[in-house]
Design brief:
The complex is a heterodimer of chains A (about 110) and B (about 180). With about 110 residues, chain A is mainly alpha-helical. Chain A has helices spanning about 5-25, 30-55, 65-95. Chain B has about 180 residues and is mostly helical. Helix content of chain B is about 80%, strand content about 0%. Chain B has six helices and no strands. Classes of the chains: A mainly alpha (about 110), B mainly alpha (about 180). At the A-B interface, α1, α2 and α3 of A face α1, α2, α3, α4 and α5 of B.
């Protein structure tokens, strides 16, 4: 019954795969962004779980490198979402859609 | 005394296992909802549940501060940003895009293949099952602050510069959009 590292890794794997499928299936650019967020969350769960189960410790022996990495990932995900949405707004302004299949101006 | 302690530990273990399975069910269910939903607004709603569930997983992993950050930054900030993006870019005339059957088959089979290989790797690996038993993380937040201002001071400062750059860049892009609309 005890919850071990593998449980968290499997949940993160399911989350990762759902994110990949979302990225593959959606044509709405914002849907793709949501898929990227799922993938980043899966990575975060892995980081925190590995930190908890390999560097847990008590008192002074505790190391929190995984949690620090996860914090950075959260901040970077927020920054990435802001920039991506600005780009999508510009894209929408130029093409009147957020369908990624329509952004083929650079295609030869 | 020892018996009382052991009993208490078992109870805590059971409670945390129940919490873990609840959060895992929320995360997996709403992630599948995200992948299978066609409406972008429903995807955003499902993403909210996923993020809250991941926050619960952090809580199970003794990362209380990270759980709070997850709720504040992700569920409160990034998700609102996404909903605003939907509001600003989704014209009511846009018809729902439904992927073709072959696309669904290919994407789902790629996903299942990936999932099978990942789960096989995880199950067959010799990762330690339980590792050190961490008791309550009462030092955790302080340790996190020490790590951020100690070992990770340089990335911490660089991230502040990055956030400034992102703020300026996003504002610039939004301003360009308004100018374009005027044309």
């Amino acid at each position: 019954m005890a919850v071990g590292l593998e449980h968290y890794l499997i949940v993160a794997a399911v989350l990762f795969v759902c994110g990949i499928v979302t990225i593959l299936l959606k044509r709405n650019a914002i849907g793709i962004l949501i898929g990227v967020e799922l993938v980043l969350n899966a990575a975060n769960v892995n980081l925190v779980a590995f930190n908890r189960f390999s560097h847990g410790g008590t008192g002074d022996a505790i190391r929190l490198d995984g949690q620090v990495f996860a914090l950075f990932v959260i901040v970077l995900a927020a920054a990435e979402a802001a920039v991506a949405l600005s780009i999508f707004l510009n894209f929408y302004n130029n093409f009147a859609t957020v369908d990624v299949e329509r952004g083929d101006s650079l295609k030869g | 005394m020892m018996g009382f302690l052991a009993d208490n530990t078992t109870q805590t273990e059971t409670a945390s296992a129940v919490l873990f399975y609840m959060c895992a069910a929320i995360v997996v269910g709403s992630a599948i909802w995200v992948a299978s939903s066609r409406s972008i607004v429903r995807m955003a709603l499902a993403l909210l549940f996923t993020l809250v569930g991941v926050g619960g997983l952090y809580f199970c992993l003794n990362a209380e501060f990270l759980a709070a950050v997850q709720l504040v930054v992700y569920a409160g900030g990034t998700l609102i940003l996404i909903v605003f993006g939907v509001m600003l870019t989704n014209p009511s005339t846009a018809k729902l895009y439904s992927p073709r059957r072959i696309e669904v088959v290919v994407a789902t089979s790629i996903g299942l293949l990936l999932l099978a290989s990942l789960v096989t790797a995880i199950v067959r690996s010799t990762l330690s099952g339980n590792g050190p038993e961490t008791q309550s993380g009462s030092y955790a937040v302080g340790k996190l602050g020490e790590a951020l201002l100690g070992d990770y001071l340089v990335p911490f400062e660089i991230i502040s510069v990055l956030l400034l750059a992102v703020m300026i860049g996003a504002a610039y892009l939004a301003k360009a959009r308004r100018k374009g609309e005027g044309n």
